[in-house]
Amino acid sequence: MQDAAPGQVSFASDRLRPVRIWLYGLAAFVLLIVVVGGITRLTESGLSITSWKPISGIIPPLNEAEWLEEFEAYKQIPQYTYVHSWMELDDFKYIFFWEWFHRLLARALGLVFLVPFAVFLFQKRLSRDLAWPLFGLFVLGGFQGALGWWMVTSGLTELTSVSQYRLAAHLTAASLLFIALIYVARSLTPGRTIGHVTGFHLATGWILLVGIILQIGAGAFVAGLDAGMGYQTWPLMDGAIIPKGLFIMDPAWRNLFENALTVQFIHRGIAYALVAYIFWLLWRRSKDGGFGGVHGWLPRISLVVLAQVALGIATLLTSVPIALAVGHQAVAFMLAGLAGAYIADMRRVR
User: Fold this and answer.
1) Binding of heme: at which residues (predicted)?
2) pLDDT band at 13, cuts 50/70/90?
3) Which residues contact 42 (CB under 8 A, 6 or more apart)?
4) For residue 202, how many other CB atoms are within 10 A of its CB?
5) Domain-ending residue, one of 174, 191, 208
6) DSSP string, 279-327
7) 196 and 15 in contact (C-beta within 8 Å)?
């Protein structure tokens, strides 16, 4: 989708090629962290480590005494008392692994960013105008880590799981970081994209991306409330298109975030709206020049949207198995990345 002729930009003259590879690699690493985070959530492992030790926490317990110390700390929180009191030490080791691995990957992300970033600065591959935004992505990654610990603390004293509000903030921030990495990498692609792009096209692209981000946040509320474990029929919910009981909580706004029925209903509704919107975009584009050049992204995005909807329905109907649920979450991020790449390419036309 570029107008540069083959071979016009050589690898030798393309000084930003290693930077783009690095950014795409960072995005893939973020996606891996999200996948492991999903497994951590689905195995109820997220509260197994009750303290935050940025340096010493890298090393897991190495002997029986250290394992027992960690297990004793876990026994002090409500999740163990009310949900996992049946656990023995070996059971605890299993959930500990997933939370430890999730945190280890998050720490590693910082190194995977900083070391190449320093090398690129030394090699003078990064201009000042590029270096500062990239450093901003590092700050966003650090903020994401802080959000993760803030989320964990919500389940250490009163709740038996983390707050769905904080889970939504954590996952949404991760999606913003992922999208930003893809967007910046795509923006650094040499040459210019071809195709007719207007302000309308850009606006509709941004609306699509915002809708996907909202859906990721809504999915986090579904996960935080275990809302996917109820009303496991489709297309009906509780025997109706619009089920009763959507606004039984008072005040009414609480239903949007705390009523499992309403939260799942909203998640379904946003999915339907996104499908309708993407097909409207396809119809509109077919009447306005077709899908050549930059707008070739639209058919690809529409196929991923359909795959994501099918995956979501399958996840619901099969009682949220880990593989399908994690796949559903991962594809949502991929869809957001595609929308971000589409916008980046449209901006390179202008």
Assistant:
1) 267, 328
2) low
3) 320, 322, 325, 326
4) 16
5) 191
6) HHHHHHHHTTTTT-GGGGHHHHHHHHHHHHHHHHHHHHHTT--HHHHHH
7) no
The DSSP secondary structure of 91-148, one letter per residue, reads: HHHHHHHHHHHHHHHHHHHHHHHHHHHHHHHHTT-S-HHHHHHHHHHHHHHHHHHHHH
Is there a single domain that holds both residue 185 and residue 266? no
Q: Which residues are annotated as a binding site for heme?
A: 267, 328
Q: Are residues 30 and 140 in the same domain?
A: yes
Contacts of 331 (CB under 8 A, 6+ apart): 304, 307, 308, 311
pLDDT, tens digit (0-9, with 9 covering 90-100), for 260-304: 999 999 999 999 999 999 999 999 999 888 888 899 999 999 999
Q: What is the CA radius of gyration of the chain?
A: 22
Task: Give residue 181's identity as a one-letter amino acid code.
Answer: L
Q: Answer yes or no: are the C-beta atoms of 218 and 263 closer than 8 Å.
A: yes
| Residues flagged as binding site | 267, 328
* 186 and 203 inside one domain: no
Phi, psi angle pair for 268, to nearest 5°: -65, -45
Query: How many whole angstroms separate alpha carbon 168 and alpha carbon 253?
Result: 16
